[in-house]
Amino acid sequence: MIRYIVRHRAPVLLLLVCTFLLGLVSYAGLPRENNPDVKIPFVMVTTPYPGVSPQDVESLVTIPVEGEVSGIKDLKSVTSISAEGLSTVSLEFEPDVVIAEALQRVRDKVSSAEAKIPKDAEDTIVQEVSFSDMPIMLINIAGAADETKIKSLAEDLQEDIERLPGALRVQLSGGRTRQLRVQVDPTRLAHYDIGLQDVIDAIGNENVNIPGGEIVGTRANFLVRVPGEFEGTDDISNVAITRRGDRPVFVRDVAEVVDSFADRSTYSRMNGKPSVSLGVVKRAGANIVELAIAAKEIAKKHAESWPEGVEYEIMADQSRDVDIMVSELENNILLALLLVCGVVMFFMGIKNSLFVAIAIPLSMLMAMMIFSLMGITLNMVVLFSLVLVLGMLVDNAIVLVENIYRHIELGKSAFEASVIGAKEIAMPVAASTLTTVAAFAPLLAWTGIMGEFMVYLPLTLVTVLLSSLVVAIVMLPVLTSMGMKARARVDQKEAKLGFVLRMYRGTLLWAMRHRYFTAFSMLALLIGSFVGYGAFNHGTEFFPDVEPDRAIVSVRGADGTDLEETDRIVREIEEIVLEDSAVRTYIAETGVSNGQFSTSEATNQAKLTLSFYPHASKAAPGEVIRKEDTRLTIERLREQVAKLVGAEIKIESEAQGPPVGKAISIEVSSKKYDDAGRFAEKARRAIIAVDGVTGIADRYRVGRPELRFRVDRGAAKRVGASTGEVANAVRAALSGTKASAFRDGEDEYDIMVELAPAFRNDLQSVLCLHVHGREDMELGTFSVPIYTDASYEQAGGSGAINQK
Question: How many domains does the chain have?
Fold first, then answer.
């Protein structure tokens, strides 16, 4: 076989050239990304229900959803969290499930459950969990301009970036949302004997655009349309709600329509200035480097026309890490070529060393072709594996070329030496490669999310090693037969041996003469290695504790803390961060949860993302570099924020590698949630005393205090009202209700019906709200029998966690 290959060199040379050219094209075209696109067998079912307590969210939303989805095929476990205003059900499937099919089965079951969920709950969202949904970079826009102006600039930038071929979407966060607010005066409602729901229904029924069909004429056909969409606030004010006598009652008679903003639920600042963030999410398989470069160019172009004082900052740029890893790979390949050439040159001469050196790029480029065919991207794991395998792939070439060179020195022609040398060494080289492949091959069967993430390591190693075997056995004999020459005939005399060979020969002879001592020494060294590791090792961890580039500050105030008080604490932390010279940029977000599951109302929570100056190895030319280990910076900040009171504050470095959760998780379960919370508190106090524990958190929350309104059901029925109507009226009065939507060009805004600000927090105004009007009743009679016997009780709300 070897003789046939060497004799028919033309096809092999053509294969070599094609491998080189196609490998280069494949390498240039392989998508770059930070993490592998791993399909996680998790599906999240999220149902927002603003203003509802955790117990009610659990009974009204979570339990019906759990009941429907619990019987889905291939379902491994169901975990749910019922928090204030939000139900989150997490479904874990078997690792080998087809996630697209599982997602469709969940959607079908959730559709069945929606009939059991209250109609005033918001739409349920069903989505899979994927690494590709994480933004590859954050573009933060901040400045002294008005928040509305900053958001408008961000929206323009968002539209242009979303047009890029590799961009899936751009997530905008921060800024204020425009809203048309119908602020109702409850005394006027009572005067006209109108309920709040009547206003909501009237606005919803008038803001329509309905096709009316078709009229067939003698010469032409006409489409009929009934355009009723609102074009301005005056159209809303002129909506007729009902009729009293011979006069209609308009919205303007009972309410004021205000073009305003939604109630502020978050604050966002960058280095103390109001900010808006854009998270760029790439499409699966898109090149992260190309997308990032294009997005930066667009941002730079937009910034040229922004008002003075408005600027942007790029954070969490994954493309920069990928660029660094690719550069390190290319530098390592170049360094390996130089080292291999130097070592082989010492023994076989300059020309012959090139035969070994050529194996490195050829093996790599052949592997790149295979990666392209398999749809593998250049991600963190693949790049690490390529650097790891660099030292292995030249072994085959060195052994084969050295054996061919030995035969040439013995006087054989280049052709015969290549054939005989390759034949002698082909099986040992193949066996050596396959043993290494066999050591990594079992990792290909690694299951679970971690297996999906780490499978690229053995896959890369196996691919490159097999490619190096093909290059060594097929291509190198052809090349050596064409150009290898001996420097001189070999001389077996010791005097002709080099210094290195003489040293090696002497050591080998001594070891063979004292074989028992040598064997005992090696055994002692092996045992001593295990003993030394057990005595001096620093522990075991999945990923090394590397110096972080970013840190996260989590703030959690007492349940019920309003947004302004939480933001006051955040501003105190900002003052500490601003004085620290190691922090380059920070983003402060008040009203945002840093947990795995965030509630729709997180007024007592906040998050600060700190970005440090880059390390010298990652800094661009002229860029300021960090002067100390960022782990020391984090410890210093922890000591400073520990002096602040009013909230629980934690500072953690940005997690490295795939998401693996906390180092240790302990689950406490009980039939009663409050009992589980008490047990968890006892466990927490015991664990915090353990040496090495730096932070401990639990999900138990007492919840905000609440006022429970009891309806006199008999009195309600006597006037034709139901408990549901009363509850909806109270909810609309306190939280507002979306009546319809208003479209202004390409933008769409909610039309919210609510009580006027002067009455919204006035308990008496809510109690006297006209819920269900009847014309034959005296004014206000309806509210008296219901609310006179109604009672309020002070209670503590709580979160709820169920697991099946």
Answer: 6
This prediction has a pTM of 0.71
Asked if residue 254 and residue 325 are part of one domain, the reply reads no
Tokens, residue 705: 């205090």
Cα 637 to Cα 728: distance, rounded to the nearest angstrom: 47
End-to-end alpha-carbon separation of the chain, Å? 62
Q: By C-alpha distance, which of 196, 173, 407 is closest to 268?
A: 173
Structure confidence by residue, pLDDT tens digits, 653-702: 876 655 555 667 787 877 777 777 788 888 888 887 787 776 677 777 66
Domain identity same for 480 and 406 = yes
Query: For residue 726, what is the enclosing H or E element?
Result: helix 723-735
CA triple 644-699-134, angle to 5 deg: 90
Closest by CA to 282, choosing from 153, 152, 130, 454, is 130
pLDDT band at 114 (very low <50, low <70, confident <90, very high): confident
In a domain, 680, yes or no: no
DSSP helix/strand/coil, 792: strand
> What is the residue range of 525's domain?
496-534
The per-residue b/e assignment along 541-575, b for 16 or more CB within 10 angstroms, e otherwise, is: eeeeeeebbbbbbbbbbebebebebbbebbebbbe
Closest by Cα among 136, 134, 176 to 154: 176
| Whether residue 206 sits in one domain with residue 280 | no
Residue 157 in contact with residue 141, Cβ under 8 Å? Answer: yes
Rounded Cα gap, residues 604 and 590, in angstroms: 8
Distance between CA atoms of residues 233 and 159, nearest Å: 27
The CATH number of whichever domain residue 709 belongs to comes to 3.30.2090.10
Q: What average pLDDT is seen over the chain?
A: 80
25 lies in the same domain as 146: no
The Cα–Cα gap between 777 and 719 comes to 9
Radius of gyration of the chain (CA): 36
Q: How far apart are CA 360 and CA 362, in angstroms?
A: 6
Whether 121 is in a domain gets the answer yes
Compute how many other C-beta atoms are within 10 angstroms of the C-beta atom of residue 449: 19
Query: Are residues 53 and 125 located together in one domain of the fold?
Result: yes
SS3 for 566?
A: helix
Within 13 Å and on the Cβ side, how many CA atoms surround 132? 19
Do residues 335 and 400 share a domain? yes
| Residues 276 and 335 placed together within one structural domain of the fold | no
The strand pair at 647-653 and 747-755 is best described as: unpaired
In angstroms, rounded to a whole number, what is the distance separating the alpha carbons of residues 472 and 470? 5
User: How many whole angstroms separate alpha carbon 673 and alpha carbon 120?
Assistant: 26
Residues 108, 166 share a domain? no
Residue type, 550: R
639 domain residue, yes or no: yes
Under 8 Å CB-to-CB from 92, ≥6 apart: which residues?
Answer: 41, 42, 75, 76, 77, 78, 79
Q: Categorize the per-residue pLDDT at 599 as very low, low, confident or very high, splitting at 50, 70 and 90.
A: very low
Structure tokens at 345: 């040159």
Where among 105, 133, 161 does a domain terminate? Answer: 133
Q: Using CA of residue 22, residue 28, residue 30, residue 35, what is the dihedral sign?
A: positive
Of 49-53, 314-318, 450-454, 592-596, the one with minimum mean pLDDT is 592-596
Taking only the tens place, the pLDDT of each residue in 125-183 is: 888 877 667 788 889 999 888 888 888 899 899 999 999 988 888 888 888 888 888 99
Q: Does residue 457 lie in a domain region?
A: yes
> Which one-letter DSSP state was computed for residue 32?
B
CB of 754 closer than 8 Å to CB of 732: yes
Query: Which CATH number does the domain housing residue 486 bear?
Result: 1.20.1640.10
CATH assignment of the domain containing 80:
3.30.70.1430
Can you give 112-123 as a three-state secondary structure string?
HHHHHCCCCCCC
CA distance 56 to 709: 14
DSSP conformational letter for 588: E
